[in-house]
């Protein structure tokens, strides 16, 4: 997503004061602030990016569970304990899912989770 300073300034001018205040407080506490409009733009960008890819990719149940737990912040070791698997097996499920979905890291996994709606109820 390409954003220049003018469009960012327009976006900030349209942001509700309460949302802007919350974003600034989040920034001051070391977070990564955002507004609903920024989030909508990012999600729209991800969806457009994924349109050209093969949407018929299917993950195994374990691959799906592994990615879901990763997006919830669990480490490979914690996922292994929860699913009664070895850490190596969790790593294999993660690698296989990432290969199938053409993902290149945890950030890409989180993007995928957003598109799947996994983070809506967290």
In short:
By secondary structure, the protein is mainly alpha-helical. The chain contains seven helices and no strands.
Structure explained in plain terms:
The chain is mainly α and 122 residues long. The protein folds into 2 domains: 5-51, no CATH class; 61-116, Winged helix-like DNA-binding domain superfamily/Winged helix DNA-binding domain (Arc Repressor Mutant, subunit A), CATH 1.10.10. It has helices spanning 5-14, 17-28, 36-51, 61-71, 76-83, 87-101, 106-116. The model has no long low-confidence stretch (mean pLDDT 77).
Q: In terms of topology, how is this protein built?
A:
Blueprint: H1 5-14, H2 17-28, H3 36-51, H4 61-71, H5 76-83, H6 87-101, H7 106-116
Helix pairs in contact: 4-6, 4-7, 5-6
CATH topology of the largest domain: Arc Repressor Mutant, subunit A
Question: What portion of the residues fall into strands of 2 or more residues?
Answer: under 5%
Cα-based radius of gyration, to the nearest Å = 17 Å
Overall tally of structural domains: 2
């Amino acid at each position: 997503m390409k954003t220049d300073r003018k469009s960012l300034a327009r976006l900030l001018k349209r942001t509700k004061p309460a949302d802007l205040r919350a974003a600034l407080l989040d920034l001051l506490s070391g977070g990564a602030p955002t507004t609903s409009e920024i989030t909508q733009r990012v999600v729209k960008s991800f969806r457009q990016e994924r349109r050209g890819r093969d949407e018929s990719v299917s993950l195994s149940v374990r691959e799906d569970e592994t990615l879901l737990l990763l997006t919830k912040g669990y480490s490979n070791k914690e996922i292994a304990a929860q699913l009664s698997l070895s850490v190596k097996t969790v790593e294999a499920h993660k690698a296989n899912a990432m290969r199938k979905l053409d993902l290149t890291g945890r950030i890409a996994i989180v993007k995928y989770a957003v598109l799947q709606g996994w983070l809506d109820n967290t």
